[in-house]
Amino acid sequence: MVTKRALLIVILLLSVTGIPCAQTTLNPDVSLIGDVRIFSHDDATRQDEKEKFNIAEPKMELMVSGYINPYARADAVVAWEGDENANVEEIYATILRGLPLGMNVRVGRYKLEFGRLNPVHVHAYSFMERPLPHLLLFGEEGLSDMAVRVSFLLPTGGAYTEVMGAVLKGDVLTKEVEDLPEHIDPGFFGRVATSFAVSDAAELALGTSVLNSVYAVAGPGNSEQLRAWLGGVDAKYKYKPSRYTTLQIEAEGIIRTEEKEYVDNYTSYGGYGYIDYRFKRSYNIGGILSYTHMKELMSLPGSTLQYPSDIWRAGLFTGFAPIEETSLVRLGGSWTKQDRRNGYWGVMVQFVFSLGPHQPHNF
């Protein structure tokens, strides 16, 4: 049952639409996204679900967004999963215009623009699961943090080129780490992205990202903060010959290097690529391939060694949006294989619906 605190947050956010505001002539947009999934698999590490009919706990996101004044806007996303308490995933304000050199400034907690997929909420993917390198190198919640981010455009002729940099609170890589000191040193994030038309019906977008932040402490009795570097390159090609047909191809490569106290730095890397074909406006079909090379620890008598672990996942997906994408039905299947372990299959059916102006999937 949703907690009283969660209900109070919902009521408060919904009531915003009824409060007149002198700074703007428009009420904020309020949307609710629901996500329900049915799945099965034969993963031996999850025996309770193996080869059974499973219904996942429903997920819900409440999104509130709107202009504060002609120069700035604010956005907030509150999420629930099952009976868990409300979780404020994002809350930030963005100054869009009026600053020197055409700068854009964002302040608050949000999903960092590392690559093309990290800023996107999972329900808006064409597929149903986060790619392996995002899950294993970024963490279960992806890359999000309190940040002060500045961006501006470069004069690159027919190409749209944006440069951005941010100072982070520093917990972007520590959400699943225990026994952290009260103060974490700040982190840093940067990105350069460009996009341009390659024909009347096609465009290409390229980008590169970098992040440095604390990910752990050295160990008991040692409060040294260990840092990690993340780097990535990404590309997206989109061909849209008509309003009813779109072909999209996207790929991203990621590398992560971690400081260690007594051994050499760990370097892990991975990548994904997918192709998504949308036709008759309401249907899409595609495939995705992702791979991650992880460095793990192997404890032996008197020593601790690194050993590599390669993980592959290949999947197919298809979807149908009946009317204006206010609802979606998706079907997907995947095969996952990891070194020294048996491979396993997984299948999933997803139902997504939207109440309000925010669509569950913006293609």
Molecular structure report:
By secondary structure, the protein is mostly beta strands. The chain has a domain at 68-316: Porin. Helices cover 5% and strands 59% of the residues. The chain is built from two helices and 17 strands. It has helices at 4-15, 132-138; strands spanning 29-41, 54-55, 59-69, 72-81, 87-95, 104-111, 144-154, 160-168, 187-199, 202-219, 222-242, 245-258, 266-279, 283-300, 303-320, 327-338, 344-355. Strands 1-3-4-5-6-7-8-9-10-11-12-13-14-15-16-17 form a 16-stranded antiparallel barrel. It is globular and about 60 Å long.
Report strand order across the widest sheet: 1-3-4-5-6-7-8-9-10-11-12-13-14-15-16-17
Q: What is the CATH fold-level name of the domain at 68-316?
A: Porin
- Main beta-sheet strand count, sense and barrel state: 16 strands, antiparallel, barrel
Number of helices: 2
Radius of gyration: 22 Å
Number of strand segments: 17
What are the key terms here?
363 residues; mainly beta; Porin; 16-stranded antiparallel β-barrel
What's the quick description here?
Strand 15 and strand 16 form a beta hairpin.
Topology:
Elements: H1 4-15, E1 29-41, E2 54-55, E3 59-69, E4 72-81, E5 87-95, E6 104-111, H2 132-138, E7 144-154, E8 160-168, E9 187-199, E10 202-219, E11 222-242, E12 245-258, E13 266-279, E14 283-300, E15 303-320, E16 327-338, E17 344-355
Antiparallel strand pairs: 1-2, 1-3, 1-17, 3-4, 4-5, 5-6, 6-7, 7-8, 8-9, 9-10, 10-11, 11-12, 12-13, 13-14, 14-15, 15-16, 16-17
